TrEMBL record:
Pfam families xrefs: PALP
GO-annotated molecular function: ATP binding; L-serine ammonia-lyase activity; magnesium ion binding; pyridoxal phosphate binding; serine racemase activity; threonine racemase activity
Name of the protein: Pyridoxal-phosphate dependent enzyme
Lineage: Bacteria, Pseudomonadati, Bacteroidota, Cytophagia, Cytophagales
Record-stated family: Belongs to the serine/threonine dehydratase family.
The protein's required cofactors: Mn(2+); Mg(2+); Ca(2+); pyridoxal 5'-phosphate
Protein source organism: Dawidia cretensis
GO biological process, one term: D-serine biosynthetic process
Record's keyword terms, sorted: Lyase, Magnesium, Pyridoxal phosphate
């Protein structure tokens, strides 16, 4: 369902609406990793996350009739903001189901783009049930946060841009929750940098993708991690792509995530959220895998509650 032409067309379609984010390097981070790291900084993307790509690609392809009824989704935050922004740019309504535990900074972002929020309990069942109620009342079109080929093709454009700028990468590393970014990254790698190995990173407290690779079937996430953007399980569209194209999944603890986030903040002087720090933590944990390698890392977003981040740093320092 996702071809090289699909990704290139998606990139051309969304280009007027997104940032071409920078690729950054850091001598300090290279020293910690024992190799060369190239960070695709989607924390500088519109809405502060890569989600702006997939959401925009999907919404732009709606028919006039679908646009008239609006769009709906469920999301813990970044996809929610991306859908709300995409809808605002096109002058249509956005209905967003969010768990009540979603970070306040992400709720404020949705409201700032004019999205209408419906809060629910922090379970996948509650999110999906409320979303179906919203769609039944409004007639809105669902734009799933990851289990949607148009969304995946949009997310693939981040890796496409990285490969256009940095050649001869040995490894590309992306975080995995529902698998939209990872699926897109792996497909872009297949077409535009086939010698590059795709590795994923996942919180140990939400390691359904890791367990799914072992069992050969989709497993359910325990959803227990500070990486709030990675608490969902793989979908029936993302799982086959991940299983076919991803060589390895490395899991990291919350303590390792916080340490990685702090390293990036201190050494690179940029803000990333816990989900974005997961692949960085994987590099620092599995040093032998990345030592003397050229590794691309998708920094997925920078929407973090600063007070909460400082609290995490203080707790780790005790």
């Amino acid at each position: 369902m996702i071809t090289s032409a699909t990704i290139l067309t998606a990139h051309a379609r969304i280009r007027p609406y997104i940032h071409r984010t920078p690729v950054m390097t850091s001598g300090g981070m290279d020293q910690l990793a024992g190799g060369s790291l190239f960070f695709k900084c989607e924390n500088f993307q519109k809405v502060g996350a890569f989600k702006a790509r997939g959401a925009m690609n999907a919404v732009l392809q709606l028919s006039p009739e679908q646009r008239a009824a609006g769009v709906a989704t469920h999301s813990s935050g970044n996809h929610a903001q991306a859908i709300a922004r995409s809808a605002k740019l096109l002058g249509i309504r956005a209905y967003i189901v969010m768990p009540r535990t979603a970070p306040a900074v992400k709720k404020r972002g949705v409201e700032g783009y004019g999205g209408e929020i419906f809060e629910c309990e922090p379970t996948l069942q509650a999110r999906e049930s409320m979303l179906q109620d919203v769609i039944a009342r409004t007639g809105a079109t669902e734009i799933h946060p990851f289990n949607n080929y148009d969304v995946m093709a949009g997310q693939a454009t981040a890796a496409l841009e990285l490969y256009q700028e940095v050649t001869d990468l040995d490894i590309i590393l992306a975080p995995v929750g529902g698998g939209g970014l990872l699926s897109g990254t792996s497909m872009a790698t297949r077409y535009f940098s086939p010698r590059t190995v795709v590795i994923a990173a996942e919180p140990a407290g939400a390691d359904d993708a890791y367990r799914s690779m072992l069992s050969g079937q989709p497993e359910v996430s325990q959803a227990n991690s500070i990486a709030d953007g990675l608490l969902t399980s793989l979908g029936d569209k993302t799982f086959p792509i991940v299983r076919e194209n991803v060589q390895q999944i490395i899991t990291v603890t919350d303590d390792e995530i916080v340490r990685a986030m702090r390293h990036v903040w201190e050494k690179m002087k940029i803000i990333i959220e816990p989900s974005s720090a997961v692949p960085v933590a994987a590099v620092l944990k599995a040093g032998d895998v990345f030592r003397e390698k050229r590794t691309g890392i998708i920094l997925s977003g920078g929407n973090v509650d600063l007070e909460r981040a400082l609290q995490l740093f203080q707790e780790q320092g005790k």
